[in-house]
Write a structure and sequence with these properties.
CATH class of the largest domain: Mainly Alpha
Shape: globular
Largest sheet: 4 strands, mixed
Low-confidence stretches: none
Number of strands: 6
Number of domains: 2
Number of helices: 10
Structural class: alpha+beta
Radius of gyration: 18 Å
Distance between the termini: 44 Å
CATH topology of the largest domain: Four Helix Bundle (Hemerythrin (Met), subunit A)
Order of helices and strands: HHHHHEEHHHEEEHEH
Mean pLDDT: 96
Length: about 270
C-alpha cells in the first residue's frame, strides 16, 4: 500500500470540511494567490487529480490529454480557461462534490498501485509514490490560499513531512532551474506538528535552517515569504535557498513579497 495515498486522502478531506459550508457567493471570492477564486483553486486541483488517475491507468491517454492542454495554451488560452472549459461550467458545491469524489477515488487507486511503478507526467517519468505525493503537496499548498481567505487556522498534521521531503529533494533543482550553481546543502532541523524533530543533511553551525516544519513547507511551496515565518536561517547557502525555494515543477517563480500572503480575519478584501 502506498502510504502517501492515505495522507493525500486525509488532506483532501480536511480541505473538504473547510469548504462544505460555504455559501454560493463565497465561491467567487478571490484569494491572495494570483486572484484565483475558490472555484479556480478546486477546479485546478480536480483537473490534476484527474490527470494523475489517467496516467496511472493509461499513459497514452494521459499524453493525449497533455497535448490537448498544450495546444489550447499555444492557441492563446490559459490553463485556467482550459480547466473551466473541461469542467463544462461546473462550479460551487457541484464542483466540490465532483472534486471530493475523484480525490477519494484517486487515493484508492494509488493506494492499490505498485509504489515503484513509473508513470508519465509533465517532465520526466516519476514513481507512483512520487506522483501521489505531488498531489498531496499541491492540495496542501493551494489549500493554504483558501484557509487564508476564510481566516481559518489549519490544524496541521505530521503528514506534511511529505511536503518537507519534496522541499528537501528539490534543493538542487531550485538552483539548477534558474541556471545557478548549486551550493552546499544546509542542515535542516524542523519541528513537526506533533513535536517530533526531523533532520536532513550533515549538522552545521554555519549553514543551517531551524524552525517549524509548517513554516519550512510554506516557504518551499511559495505560500509564504521566508520573512513572514519564524524560520531561523544561518549562512549564505541557506539564505539563498530560502529566498528562491521552489518545490513544484515548471519555470522559475519568485516567492510572494513579504507581507503579501496572510490569514485574513474575514472574507472581505
Amino acid at each position: 500500500m502506498v502510504e502517501q495515498a492515505s495522507d493525500f486522502r486525509d488532506e483532501s478531506e480536511a480541505l473538504h470540511r473547510l469548504l462544505e459550508r460555504l455559501d454560493e457567493e463565497a465561491w467567487a471570492s478571490p484569494t491572495q494567490f494570483k486572484r484565483w477564486t475558490v472555484n479556480d483553486v478546486i477546479a485546478h486541483l480536480h483537473l490534476w487529480n484527474y490527470a494523475a488517475c489517467l496516467t496511472l491507468r493509461d499513459a497514452d491517454a494521459f499524453l493525449r490529454f497533455r497535448r490537448e492542454l498544450a495546444g489550447y495554451v499555444k492557441g492563446g488560452g490559459t490553463h485556467m480557461a482550459f480547466t473551466h472549459a473541461w469542467l463544462g461550467g461546473v462550479r460551487n458545491r457541484a464542483l466540490l462534490r465532483r472534486w471530493r469524489d475523484l480525490a477519494t477515488d484517486t487515493a484508492e487507486q494509488f493506494a492499490a498501485a505498485d509504489p515503484k511503478a513509473r508513470v508519465k507526467w509533465g517532465g520526466p517519468d516519476m514513481s507512483v509514490r512520487s506522483c501521489i505525493t505531488a498531489r498531496l503537496m499541491e492540495t496542501w499548498a493551494h489549500g493554504q490560499a483558501l484557509y487564508d481567505l476564510l481566516g481559518v487556522e489549519r490544524q496541521e498534521a505530521d503528514r506534511i513531512r511529505n511536503v518537507a521531503v519534496i522541499g528537501i529533494n528539490t534543493f538542487g533543482w531550485t538552483f539548477a532551474n534558474r541556471g545557478l550553481d548549486v551550493p552546499e546543502a544546509p542542515h535542516v532541523r524542523l519541528t513537526a506538528p506533533s513535536g517530533a524533530v526531523w533532520e536532513w543533511h550533515e549538522p552545521s553551525d554555519d549553514n543551517r535552517i531551524e524552525g517549524a516544519a509548517v513554516d519550512f513547507c510554506r516557504v518551499v511551496t511559495q505560500v509564504r515569504n521566508v520573512a513572514d515565518t519564524g524560520l531561523r536561517v544561518t549562512g549564505e547557502p541557506a539564505r539563498r535557498w530560502m529566498a528562491l525555494a521552489q518545490c513544484f515543477a515548471g519555470p522559475p517563480e519568485d516567492p510572494p513579497p513579504p507581507g503579501s500572503r496572510f490569514r485574513r480575519s474575514s472574507r472581505e478584501d
